[in-house]
Design brief:
The protein is an alpha/beta fold. It folds into two domains: 49 residues; 232 residues, Rossmann fold (3-Layer(aba) Sandwich), CATH 3.40.50.150. It contains eleven helices and seven strands. A seven-stranded mixed beta sheet has the order 3-2-1-4-5-7-6, sandwiched between helices. Bound molecules: S-adenosyl-L-homocysteine (SAH). S-adenosyl-L-homocysteine (SAH) binds next to strand 2 and helix 8.
Length: 295
């Protein structure tokens, strides 16, 4: 019964040339898989739209954003959807180890928005989020700054698929995903020396970030590197590496995260001349052998 119905829908009905039972069975099975996939997709969308964020969670997000100078009230619905999408996506691919609502709000949403401290991302100069992972800081930023075009880059294609799908679900037209390694982009004429702003959160030590990001920047462009508490040794190593790469580490913002009071720093690099052809080195090398080792 199931087979006949499905095969008819595929043009295998009685008016058409005879189709063997085997073919009908096959077409039916393929259609069954298609139908099952549609049901899964519908369920996913339903989960994303219906998953509740508790009133405590909403209150926490609102109150934690205030000390950062941000009013998230107008964006509450979209943050709710982002939280649901993250939890749903995490059931299929390994996106984050942070799954408790309170932690998602403080360690992903609020921490991400910390990159606005100091005003280095004011305005609408297009931004590259290099090593975006599950979309941090790209997605929270895109929600509150719809005028800011963001290219979200990560080496892991599945993470970029998630970011792209989530941006569509949340109707964030300002986010584009790109699955690529920073080292490849740094040697690609379409990206080398072509960007004005790069942000990186929780990707690597400063000398590694400098080698991955500075080649992408135009002269005068900025790298905004979000770090935990920055040690003097890492700061010095970052300065030395920047000089080798045609940049300078010229400023550090220090602040504390609301609620948890954890220390955070943002290191600001500027590109001041062309990066020597030697850099970035081959994929994986910047991480394995940092230009300046601060360990
Ligand atoms: N920025 C996100 C993810 C941090 S985890 C957040 O704050 O939650 C670091 C991410 O950087 C990983 O997803 C990893 O795939 C990506 N990454 C590391 N080295 C990279 C490289 N050379 N090029 C592109 N992505 C890289």
């Amino acid at each position: 019964m199931f087979h006949v119905k499905l095969s008819k829908a595929n043009g295998g009905g009685f008016d058409n040339p005879p189709v063997s039972r085997e073919t009908i069975g096959h077409v039916g099975f393929v259609d069954f898989l298609g139908a099952a996939a549609s049901v899964c997709a519908a369920l996913r969308t339903f989960t994303v739209w219906s998953k509740p964020v508790t009133p405590e969670g909403e209150a926490l997000l609102l109150s934690a954003a205030l000390p950062l100078g941000l009013d998230l009230q107008p964006h509450m619905m979209v943050f709710r959807q982002l939280q649901a999408a993250l939890l749903e996506g995490n059931t299929r691919i390994n996106l984050t180890s942070i799954t408790a609502e309170r932690e998602i709000i403080l360690k992903h949403f609020i921490d991400s928005l910390g990159c606005l401290q100091g005003g280095w991302l004011n305005g609408s100069t297009p931004l590259v989020d290099l090593g975006t992972g599950a979309g941090f800081p790209a997605l929270p930023l895109a929600i509150i700054k719809p005028e800011l075009p963001i290219l979200a880059v990560d080496a892991t294609a599945k993470k970029i698929e998630f970011v792209t799908r989530t941006a569509q679900t949340l109707k964030l037209g300002n986010v584009r995903g790109l699955a690529a390694r920073a080292e490849e982009l740094g040697r690609n004429a379409a990206h080398r020396g072509q960007h004005d702003r790069v942000v990186m959160r929780a990707v690597a030590a400063l000398p590694v970030l400098a080698e991955l990001a500075l080649p992408l920047l135009r002269e005068g462009g900025l790298l905004i590197a979000q770090k935990g508490q920055l040690s003097d040794a890492e700061y010095q190593a970052g300065r030395e590496a920047a000089e080798m790469l045609g940049g300078e580490l010229f400023h550090v913002e220090h602040y504390h995260l609301p609620v948890s009071n954890d220390a955070r720093s943002i290191a600001i690099f500027r590109k001041i001349r062309a990066t020597p052809e030697l850099y970035p080195r081959r994929s994986g090398v910047p991480n394995k052998k940092p230009l300046v080792d601060n360990s």
